[in-house]
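Session log. Operator J.P. requested a structure for one protein chain; no other inputs attached. Running the standard single-chain path with token output.
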Amino acid sequence: MILFGFYLRQLRKEHNVSLQTLAQELDVSVPFLSLIENNKKAVPINYGDKLTEIFNLTPEQSKELKNSIDYTNKKISIDLQDMNDAQQEVTLAFARTINTASQKKLEELRKILESDDEE
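Structure written below.
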């Protein structure tokens, strides 16, 4: 997983956009954006959507960008509102036990979650 600041710098260079220009587009100061780009400041969660629009990212690029924000911020939020009861129960059970799960259990979960099998 790539840190957001590195991903952002790469996007700026690919699109030939200066730090100052991007700061103006995001309505923030250049020093603030520089701190984010150097991974020294948490990334506002809405930057995923804003940067997707600014750089006209594909859905895959947008997902990668948003994953880098979560990874960099070391936090993720999950909206339970549109989940059914079973999805909510599994999500909450996962959140309650993830910090104490063994490496073996984590590997089993990863395999299950990454499998394409539908039963």
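Operator note: Residues 80 and 87 are 8 Å apart (CA to CA).
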